[in-house]
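Fold this: Binding-protein-dependent transport systems inner membrane component
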Amino acid sequence: MRMAVYQQNNSSQPLIPYKFRRAIAPYLYLSPTIILLAMLMLFPMIVVVRYSLLDNVIMNKRPVFVGFQNYQAILTNETFRISVGNTLYFTIMSVIFHLLIGLAFALLLNSKLINSKVRSILRVFYIMPWVFTATIIAIIWRLLLNPNGIVNYILMTLHLISRNIEWLSLTQTALHAVTFINIWAGYPFYMVSILAGLQGVPGELYEAAIIDGANERQKFWHITIPQILPIIISIAMLDFIWTMQVFPLVWMTTGGGPIHATEMLSTFTYKLAFSTYKFSLASASAVIILLLSMCVALFYVKHQQARE
């Protein structure tokens, strides 16, 4: 009889231990999202990496494995080298001026010297570039920078230039013009983020600094900047990743021209795939862009972990 009771108690125990079920429950709830992300992100990445190791896929019915030949061809391509230099200039200059302009406008909007109604109007005015899509921004600035556009008219009226300049069609000015457009379109992200950080700085720090006899410059460098520095680093890293992959703005203003003057990694990869139909080379170029982005993303993740 004791044996029967023992067997009955033993059979009533669950097959899966409670601790294991409790530990795996969150992952079961997240599994639909994880599966969806894997299908939409991980699977395409694996396919692109596979394509980069084969002969010209899609166009070739029976592609063969060629190893790293596509990567070698990309890295030795002169246009690729030009696109890397253009992308670095475009990205670095955009991030720097995004930060400077965004910080300046955030300090202005956070200043108590300006009336609250004026601040509200300025906030709407300064955030306007963020409202437009890349298509609208490209169209607006192509009209403004047209040889007969308003920019040339103003500069000639001020006697800063003697003739109309084709800003987006000259190799000497195209890259600078596209970079300027991207700076204009992207600074509101910094402005909003830094303004939120400034409003979170404790007022007691400034009161203590005033008691200690600190001037405005000292308060800015020793209180304001250290307090918002984590925000600046985070948004700068994100902006670097996003700007390095900008495509619509460049494509709709210059298309990578003239004569590769504004060729970016994104436009270079697009042309390989859909202009010359070299999908394997385009895949190799895309993987290189992914690796560069992952390097910056790794620094971003480490910085976030250090903050926590």
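The chain has a mean pLDDT of 88. Residues 18-52 form the longest helix (35 residues).
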